[in-house]
Amino acid sequence: MLTQQKKAVWAPLIERLVADGEDRDAVITLFEREEVRFNPNIMPRKLTHKELPRQYDIFLTERSISKARRYLIENKEILERIRTRFDVPPEILTAILLIETDLGGFTGRYRAVNILASMALADSIEQIAPLIQPEALSSMDRNWLANKLATKSKWAYEELKALLAYARLNHMDPVKIQSSIFGAIGICQFMPSNALKFGIDFDNDGKIDLFSTQDAIASMANYLVSYGWKNGLDRASQEQIIYQYNHSEPYVRAVLGVAERLGYNYTLFR
Length: 270
Hints:
Elements (H helix, E strand, L loop, with lengths): L3 H16 L4 H9 L9 H7 L13 H13 L1 H11 L3 H12 L8 E2 H10 L3 H4 L5 H5 L3 H28 L8 E2 L12 H7 L14 H14 L8 H11 L3 H13 L4 H4 L1
Antiparallel strand pairs: 1-2
Helix pairs in contact: 1-2, 4-6, 5-12, 6-14, 7-10, 10-11, 13-14
């Protein structure tokens, strides 16, 4: 049974999930588990997170490029099969994987369900105010902050529902799905909604496992193709599509920079 403390925390979210069609017993059982815990620090971190423009430089070092070259060689057969199906160059996919998870070496140390459920609950200024530095809070417009909280909380709730659906469809335990600090999952770092939209069972084992090399890389390729990737694109169009993967211009430059160091030439691709 839910303890009184857990019940007080999770009850609003449980009722919301049940109202949206989730099975009550299954949801209660999920939130009863010891591993499922509310973390009040996630939403403040999401609101104050700022990308560091130079954080991608490390991926252009010779050490990282050498590691990516080895990955290309070791996964040549899979990458070529994916190129045949999707027309996405192996160098582009490898560059994205390098930057997202160090080629699958680091997929996150958090529980996706805790991250998303915690943000879904954190929808009021009163909840998060004690957790934000006073100077940062004082510089924020309260109307802006209230709207931002509502938007982020709604987003996290939808991603939580998608996570539960993804786990159910693929016979996975949602509590065991690891994620980034903000809920991205797998080698390819998809949000759960994108796992549902773009996930591919490339190894034909009956499930879409984004922690599997084949499924993850094929899903990445499918994502890029869904946003318009194809033969004949100019450099600007390729940049716009990669931008959809991560809305960051430094990220786009790093992906193409790594890919070019691996031998990618977009004029030849055309």
